């Protein structure tokens, strides 16, 4: 399960309780992405913390990174800025937006987003923020013909165009074309929808996306059953009270914790077969199933499982032949 980072979203105090006042439009030219930026004081503190780590120490001599990397808020802001807002991040399944009008929403760090399939069948993604007074526009998932802001009713098409701005007659120099939703770069690979907050201007080519996201591991994942033939069943959310890297550390410990923390699972695995392969930004752990009897008792194990970790925090568990968890 990819980590759901529970940090404060946009600061919109008591938005729904405020009474409508004078329309106060944001600068029509300010169509910059709304990702939080790193303050200069955060930058100084976090860079000092990062310098405590020596990447040249060989793995045999490596120790756990400093505790400040897990608890200092400025370091977390640095990670959002440098890690999560600059690469491809898997945010959902293609099956959630199979038909025109289907959409889902989510949050990555501080950024609220909405992904949809428009009337022409194109996959689109936008910052999920109204261009008027920054209300969150859509919530949950479902199917719609347009997005209507719950605050003052501005209405946007599935392609992001502003279709209707309520009660603005008399406003001078207001052009609806200047106030469409702000797009986010979106791409797809296999069963996944990916977003990239760092590619404002570049055109997206899905072939390059596979290379950038998975590198030389692309084919290995496809041939091991991580492909678009899989069906989307459900999404479950868990809030884990820890820094996101703690969860990743647990996933990447090569089965070290399994015999102690997951005794039942361990009894169904052949832990001697556990292996880890490293690629540019992907780690693949695999393990064969144990005895025939244990396999019968746990159909999630089957004859082999692969656990793929894609930097920075996306995890794919493929249990032959039936299950895929992310
Ligand atoms: S915040 Fe006013 S219409 Fe959306």
Structural write-up:
The structure is a single chain. Among the domains are: 24-34 and 87-204, Rieske Iron-sulfur Protein; 244-325, no CATH class. 20% of the residues lie in helices and 24% in strands. Helix 1 (40-50) crosses helix 3 (73-84). With 326 residues, the protein is of the alpha+beta class. The chain is built from nine helices and 15 strands. It has helices spanning 40-50, 68-71, 73-84, 206-214, 218-223, 244-251, 258-261, 263-267, 292-297; strands spanning 89-93, 102-108, 111-117, 123-127, 141-143, 147-148, 155-156, 162-164, 185-189, 192-196, 269-278, 282-289, 304-310, 314-319, 323-325. A hairpin with a 2-residue loop joins strand 9 and strand 10 (192-196). It is globular, with a radius of gyration of 22 Å. The relative contact order is 0.12. The strands form four sheets. It has a five-stranded antiparallel β-sheet. A four-stranded antiparallel β-sheet has the order 4-3-2-5, with no helix packed on it. The protein has a three-stranded antiparallel β-sheet with strand order 1-10-9, with helices on one face. FE2/S2 (inorganic) cluster is lined by residues 130, 132-133, 135, 149, 151-154.
């Amino acid at each position: 399960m990819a980590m759901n980072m529970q940090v404060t979203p946009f600061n919109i105090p008591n938005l729904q309780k405020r009474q409508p006042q004078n329309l106060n439009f944001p600068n029509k030219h300010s169509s910059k992405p709304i990702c939080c930026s790193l303050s200069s004081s955060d930058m100084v503190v976090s860079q000092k913390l990062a310098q405590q780590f020596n990447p040249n120490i060989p793995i045999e001599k490596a120790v756990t990174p400093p505790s400040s990397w897990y608890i200092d808020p400025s370091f977390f802001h640095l990670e959002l800025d440098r890690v999560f807002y600059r690469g491809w991040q898997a945010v959902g399944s293609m099956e959630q937006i199979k038909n025109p009008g289907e959409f889902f929403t989510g949050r990555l760090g501080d950024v609220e987003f909405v992904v949809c399939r428009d009337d022409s069948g194109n996959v689109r993604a936008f910052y999920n923020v109204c261009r008027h007074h920054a209300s969150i526009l859509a919530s949950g998932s479902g199917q719609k013909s347009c997005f209507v802001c719950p605050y003052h009713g501005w209405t946007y098409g599935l392609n992001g165009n502003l279709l209707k701005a309520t009660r603005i007659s008399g406003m001078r120099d207001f052009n609806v074309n200047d106030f469409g939703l702000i797009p986010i770069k979106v791409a797809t690979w296999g069963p996944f929808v990916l977003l990239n907050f760092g590619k404002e201007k570049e055109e997206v080519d899905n072939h390059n996306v596979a290379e950038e996201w998975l590198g030389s591991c692309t084919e290995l994942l496809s041939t091991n059953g991580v492909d678009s033939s899989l069906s989307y069943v459900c999404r479950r959310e868990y809030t884990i009270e820890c820094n996101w890297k703690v969860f990743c550390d647990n996933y990447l410990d090569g089965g070290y914790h399994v015999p102690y923390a997951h005794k039942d699972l361990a009894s169904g695995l052949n832990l001697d077969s556990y292996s880890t392969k490293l690629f540019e930004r992907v780690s693949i752990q695999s393990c064969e199933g144990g005895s025939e009897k244990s396999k019968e008792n746990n159909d999630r194990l089957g004859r082999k499982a692969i656990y793929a970790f894609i930097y920075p925090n996306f995890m794919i568990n493929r249990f032959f032949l039936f299950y895929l968890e992310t």
